[in-house]
Design a protein that fits this description.
single chain, Glucose Permease (Domain IIA), 2 domains, two-stranded antiparallel ribbon, about 20% helix, globular
């Protein structure tokens, strides 16, 4: 029998035809009350779930399970542990005017103090407000920025793989690192030159991958910049996060101390103890733990 073309045989004349019957349930008065209660319950539940705070909590809970809202294999809900910040940071030595790769000079201090755009910062924290737009919460620093001597070696911040090497608007490079290609979190070392790694290369934290960019050196001769970023999507939109909350346990305490020591040393060098207003920071190096879109 061809189920598509053969006709369904007609019922014989003596086939019993059953007329629709109204169930005895609907004949009872309390049945209608029961139906009304069900409808009201559905309506109240819908209104409750659409309240902003409830929706946000549901989204937040889902993100804690899988921040991208999708199934993936080989990825991780947690960012890889940060084993350095892309260069050497150490306690300030007044004999050399160095704090690891940072180098304090009167010339650099004069430049950073002379233009309000720099806010006197040799190290710019994640999440600080752009002083040119003090009332705009979208104008926050999305990546910690460092002013370092030209020629400074840039290091792989994690153990993992190079997933992107791209040329920037500033005609220098950015290098992205992740645990593997399927990872949903990645670190970026932005504004570097002379990259010596390529996409697909496996790297070990501390391995030299490039040099600090010359970007900005026209304003502060002898010094360029480099940035570190932590990237992960939020509700399927690009977002940056505080990287310094993810230090590897083996270095976390010491790195936090070194960051705070750098604040103090630079303020002392400038003779201005108001440069870093970090008293309410959740962690050294980050003014907030909230993600920043973009």
């Amino acid at each position: 029998m061809d189920p598509l073309n053969d006709k369904v045989p007609e019922l014989p004349n003596d086939t019993i035809q059953h007329k629709p019957q109204i169930t005895s349930f609907l004949k009872k008065p309390y049945a209608y009350i029961f139906i009304v209660l069900i409808v009201l319950t559905v309506l109240i539940g819908t209104i409750f779930l659409n309240q902003p705070n409830v929706k946000q909590e549901i989204i937040r809970t889902a993100q804690n399970v899988n921040p991208n809202g999708e199934n993936f294999e080989g990825g991780s809900d947690e960012p890889p542990k940060l084993k350095n910040i892309g260069f050497n940071l150490d306690y300030y030595d007044p004999a050399t005017n160095r704090a690891g790769d940072f180098y304090f000079t009167k010339e650099l201090a004069a430049v950073l103090s002379g233009d309000p755009i720099y806010q006197k910062l040799i190290w710019s924290d994640y999440g600080i407000q752009d002083n040119r737009s003090p009332n705009d919460p979208t104008k926050r620093n999305v990546q910690p920025t460092f002013r370092l001597p030209l020629g400074t070696k840039v290091l792989a911040p994690i153990d993992g793989e190079v997933i992107r090497v791209e040329t920037l608007y500033s005609k220098d490079y950015t290098i992205w690192f992740a645990e593997n290609k399927k990872s949903t979190w990645s670190y970026e070392m932005e504004h570097v030159i002379n990259p010596i790694v390529k996409v697909g290369d496996k790297v070990t934290a501390g391995q030299v991958v490039a040099q600090v960019s010359t970007h900005g050196s026209e304003h502060h001769p002898g010094f360029g910049i480099v940035e570190i970023g932590l990237f992960h999507q939020l509700n399927n939109e690009p977002a940056h996060w505080c990287p310094f909350v993810h230090f590897d346990d083996s270095i976390k305490d010491e790195m936090n101390k070194k960051i705070l020591a750098l604040y103090t040393a630079w303020e002392t060098y400038l003779g201005d103890d108001s440069v870093y207003n970090n008293a309410n920071y959740p962690v050294p190096g980050c003014a907030t733990l909230e993600p920043t879109k973009g």
